[in-house]
Specification:
Elements (H helix, E strand, L loop, with lengths): L9 H16 L27 E9 L3 H8 L3 H16 L4 E11 L4 H18 L2 E9 L9 E12 L14 E6 L8 H7 L15 H5 L7 H4 L8 E6 L4 H6 L7 E5 L8 H9 L4 H7 L4 E7 L4 H10 L5 E8 L1
Parallel strand pairs: 2-3
Antiparallel strand pairs: 1-4, 2-4, 5-8, 5-9, 6-8, 7-9
């Protein structure tokens, strides 16, 4: 008996690291001062231009979207989803990403599969100007089935104290602007998988491909469109629409005594959501609490600043919708 016979292949882990090193180095920004393989990732931030820099961190996963990736043998999209999800979580606090770390756990390490996941992370890190400075790869037979893997990531970003976005200035009459999602993003997949079990290759009217292709669309990052608004006093709150839906997530930043009046018919809902609703006979309350329904980020905007913000979004080529307002409870 040896470690490999027990189910852990150290050689496969070493091969995996060799495969990903050239890719990961492509994400390195000037703050990175160590290579992949050290016991810790070293990052020396440049806070020039910040008067009171505040570090903002978050950690998340991509849920059971992984099961669809495994079923279809497509691995890079979930890697990108993980990074973009974490970027958005700190972005709605006003922060820009500095560096990212990942955790990959599996039943049996297949270097080519793990490398495919990292390729997606690398692509998203480069697009977001975020350094992938380290991670952990764990081969755990007995905890995971041989073909299964799990994925999580943590991110650290920075925001100037006076530019923190936390919703404390939200008032009655503020307007909700919704930015479109690219589908389910990374939430609601346990329900979606039940509805479409064994049907990932099916096609429905309104979809650009198969059900599986639709469900593996990359969770988009909103960094490029939102970051230039840093410090804009018309932006009173930002909400990343993840598990809990549009209302549940946006209420996290709304002060006590206020609530949301959402016009659920004010934006065109992507076809996948109505297909889910009908094929699964999912109650509307569940649809709204489980899925983003086509809105991936909500901006809470001062009423007098709505036109300026909408003009800005248009200048960036961003589609946006006025989807409601803040009102008294």
């Amino acid at each position: 008996m040896d470690y490999k016979k027990a189910g852990v292949d150290i050689g496969a882990g070493e091969e995996f690291v060799r495969m990903i090193k050239p890719q990961v180095r492509q994400t390195f920004t000037p703050g990175v001062i160590t290579d992949i393989g050290a016991f810790g990732g070293f990052f020396q931030p440049d806070f020039t231009g910040y008067s009171r820099p505040v570090l903002v961190s978050s950690i998340d996963g991509v849920g059971t979207k992984l099961k669809i990736a495994i079923e279809l043998g497509v691995y890079d999209t979930v890697g990108s989803c993980l990074v973009n999800h974490c970027v958005n979580d700190i972005l709605v606090c006003g922060a820009k990403p500095l560096f990212f770390l990942d955790y990959y756990a599996c039943g049996k390490l297949t270097p080519s599969i793990a490398a495919g996941v990292v390729t997606g992370m690398v692509n998203a890190c480069r697009e977001n100007g975020c350094a992938l400075i380290g991670g952990e790869t764990a081969e755990m037979p007995g905890v995971y089935d041989e073909a299964d893997f799990d994925l999580a990531g943590s991110i650290v970003g920075v925001v100037d104290h006076e530019k923190i976005v936390n919703g404390t200035s939200i008032e009655e009459g503020d307007v909700l602007i919704g930015l479109p999602s690219t589908g389910l993003h990374t939430n609601g997949y346990s329900l979606a998988r039940k509805v479409f079990e064994g049907r990932m290759g099916e096609r429905f009217e309104g979809l650009g491909g198969t059900v599986g292709e639709e469900l593996l669309k990359v969770h988009r990052s909103y960094l490029q469109v939102i970051a230039p608004l840093s410090g804009n006093r018309d932006v009173r709150g930002l909400s990343h629409i993840t598990g809990g839906g549009l209302t549940g997530n946006t209420m996290r930043i709304v002060p006590k005594g206020l609530t949301l009046a959402v016009d659920w018919a004010s934006w065109p809902e992507p076809a996948i959501f109505d297909i889910l609703r009908k094929e699964g006979e999912v109650p509307e309350e569940d649809m709204r609490r489980t899925f983003n329904l086509g809105i991936g980020l909500v901006m809470v905007i001062r009423r007098d600043g709505v036109r300026k913000i909408m003009d800005y979004l248009k200048s960036k080529g961003e589609i946006s919708y006025i989807i409601g307002h803040v009102t008294r409870t």
